[in-house]
Design a protein that fits this description.
0% strand; mainly alpha; 15 helices; 322 residues; single chain
């Protein structure tokens, strides 16, 4: 099942768009998206997925499972950086500062990986809880706090300040995701019916173009970062998603989530941020080398999850949950 799902996922327009972007960048093509267009697509995706998640919660109501899932999300996001930091210090020669910065990326999440996973689940007819959008938002920030603690413990002097708190709490992706979620929750199915033609039909097409742009970014990063990361560091970028997915699997099963919900919890725990955390790290740890963390999160872990990880997580969840 895992192999067939992986092949089907690899041959989907979404994944092939990403592959095209990587190939074009590695071949030094001049293909590119204007910055405003790329940002517009990301805003659209965040609004659409947040709004639809809010509508799902409005239909099903708030219950103990939602609250427990949010608590589990915060705990996972806070604890996974410690696992990542220990692995990095044991496997690689990264400094404590760089290891902490990378660890923050792996405690937080990639919302694009989450969106891709929801698209695969929908194509497979696997249902999932609508509140997983809120779970994704809850996993954005705690990892940054954990990373700062790790730096302080290793002898650094970094700490929380008002500028960093503003960067974390008012990060554009978090604000839009939660805001759209709230709008969907308030307006429900009636609100969705009014804008359904905007947030549903064009969604996969916009996602294809967005992943094409992400492929271009990832390909350029891989091309420019040759020699910046060692084989051991790249190995971490492939091992850590599997460890995170295992933690997400245990959490999802303990919460009693559906197979789709467990698969998404695994995907979130396995992903690595390349939007929210890099922005926060520029403020919190400006001395850290962003080439290492971005090459790992966007150039290694992101394509791994898109091509092999998501099919593996879904197959595992379906096999165990049914």
């Amino acid at each position: 099942m895992i192999v067939s799902l992986a092949v089907q996922n690899l041959l989907s327009p979404i994944i092939l768009s990403f592959v095209l972007g990587v190939a074009a960048a590695l071949a030094r093509s001049d293909l590119s998206f204007p910055e405003a267009v790329a940002k517009g697509m990301s805003l659209y995706l965040l609004f659409a997925i947040g709004f639809k998640g809010g509508v799902a919660v409005a239909d099903n109501g708030v219950d103990g499972t939602l609250v427990a899932a949010l608590v589990a999300a915060v705990v996972l996001s806070a604890l996974l950086p410690f696992v990542a930091y220990a692995l990095l210090r044991g496997m690689t020669k990264l400094s404590p500062l760089d290891a902490a910065a990378v660890a923050a990326h792996y405690g937080s999440i990639s919302i694009v990986t989450f969106v891709a996973a929801t698209s695969v689940l929908q194509a497979q007819g696997v249902e999932f809880e609508g509140f997983m959008v809120a779970v994704a938002a809850a996993m954005e920030a705690p990892a940054i706090v954990s990373a700062l603690w790790l730096v302080s413990r290793s002898g650094g002097t970094k700490g929380m300040n008002s500028e960093l708190m503003r960067e974390i709490l008012l990060n554009g992706s978090i604000v839009l995701l939660l805001g759209a979620f709230a709008i969907g929750w308030i307006t429900g199915e009636g609100g969705k019916a009014e804008i359904d033609a905007f947030i549903t039909d064009p969604f996969k097409g916009v996602l294809c173009l967005f992943l094409l742009d992400m492929g271009l970014v990832a390909g350029r990063g891989l091309r420019n970062a040759r020699g910046a990361v060692s084989p051991a560091v790249i190995g971490f970028g492939l091992v850590m998603p599997l460890i995170g997915a295992a933690a997400g699997l245990l959490a999802g099963m303990a919460l009693g989530l559906s197979a789709g919900g467990v698969a998404l919890m695994m995907t979130l725990s396995a992903s690595a941020s390349y939007i929210a955390v890099p922005a926060a790290m520029r403020v919190a740890l400006p001395e850290a080398n962003p080439a290492v963390s971005l090459t790992l999160s966007l150039g290694v872990t992101f394509p791994f999850n898109l091509t092999l990880g998501i099919p593996l997580y879904i197959a595992t969840a379906v096999a165990l949950i049914g």
